[in-house]
Amino acid sequence: MITETSTDLKQRWDALLANDPKLRIRNAAAQLGVREGELLATRIDDGATRLRPEFKAILSAVTSLGRVMALTRNSDVVHERKGIYQNPSLEHGPVGLFVGADIDLRIFWHAWAHAFAVVESGRDGARHSLQFFSADGEAVHKIYLVPESDASEYHDLVSHFRADDQTPAMMVQPAAPARPELPDTHIDAVALRDGWLNLKDTHDFHLLLRQHGVSRTQALRLAPEGDHAVPVKPEALRGVITAVAAEQCPIMVFVGNPGMLQIHTGTVSKLMDIPEWFNVVDPDFNLHVREAAIAQAWVVRKPSADGMITALECYDAKGEQLVQLFGKRKPGIPELEHWRAIIGKAEAELRLA
Q1: Could you say which residues of the chain have pLDDT below 50?
Q2: Helices then strands (H, E): number in the chain?
């Protein structure tokens, strides 16, 4: 539904910007009580262009843009990675893929509903992007041009996929309510633990959760005995990232939302604090974490055909996953001992009683 006329909403946004020109659109939407996509749509013909919702074709065309910046976020963590969209697998099944050394994505098509091309003012001039939203108006994924991008290909893409309907409004649908967690006593914990201990591929963990009707944090509470799921203090994320930066241990950083999972593989180096946010600010990879939102952190171990795989997983107060860290690895290669040492030290120092 449209909650108010787009003209009224645009005027209220303009009033906010008059008082705070640097206010980000996501924060403005929160202040105005609307979704980001709903607010962006008021800028159609004023910096925003609605594209036809042909997401697979659009992303296939993105490979022609050259080097860009991919951005995926959830409520409290932002993952930005520069690189080239390569090796797409978009046409088969409910999950699409880009698998490259720089841009590594898992795309969950069910959550994609709207697409826009956006031109906005930046520090160095006009900033061009492609932005994708779910049916409830939440951002799913954004692709920004960088100086090395092929701007001509971008403009051709926008022209080709421009929608006939350029009405400056978005019809938003209420987000589906989260499925309530079953009481622990209703879960066959023995079978869950047995399935966990017999995993051959960590990707099968999601299937295990679905099979037993458990949330991720519930599964962690019910994990097999030993060190398969160890609760640690929320500051473990800062501690682990600080350690891997100091020791240049290559890692994998996973950040997602219902429509996208974005992965960085490599080292991190430059860390920075700004009010409320802990940040990695490397040339090709930025991570922004609102640390106060981390309500739970766990060291999680799952067996695989390549040996035990260890992760640090962080969740918000609702049990939604914010970020996962792994040591760098590929199928067929055991986990890095360097990563195991760093995560083991954090576990020993920050384990909750």
Answers
A1: 1-3
A2: 10, 18
Answer yes or no: CATH 3.30.360.10 is held by domain 6-85+112-161: no
Helix axes 6-19, 25-32, angle to 10 degrees: 120
**What pLDDT is stored for residue 4 in this prediction?**
58
Q: How far apart are CA 161 and CA 90, in angstroms?
A: 17
* Reported pTM: 0.95
Residue 68's closest CA among 141, 18, 15, 13? 141
3-state DSSP assignment of residue 29? helix
Nearest CA-CA partner of 133 in 79, 78, 57, 53: 53
Which class is 184-350 in CATH? alpha beta
pLDDT of residue 11: 93
CA distances from 79 to 117, 192, 244, 260 (A): 20, 32, 17, 11
What is the per-residue pLDDT for 2? Answer: 46
The answer to whether 109 and 57 have CB atoms below 8 angstroms apart is: no
Beta sheet of 285-290, edge-to-edge order: 48-51, 114-122, 125-133, 139-145, 67-73, 77-84, 285-290, 277-281, 271-274
In 3D space, the residue among 266, 283, 284 whose CA is nearest the CA of residue 327 turns out to be 266
Task: Describe the strand order of the beta sheet including 296-302 as a list of residue ranges.
Answer: 88-89, 95-99, 104-108, 260-266, 251-257, 321-327, 309-315, 296-302, 229-232
Burial group, residue 332, by CB count within 10 angstroms (0-12, 13-18, 19+):
exposed
Residues 229-267 have pLDDT tens digits of 999 999 999 999 999 999 999 999 999 999 999 999 999
Radius of gyration of the chain (CA): 21
Matching fold, domains 6-85+112-161 and 184-350: yes
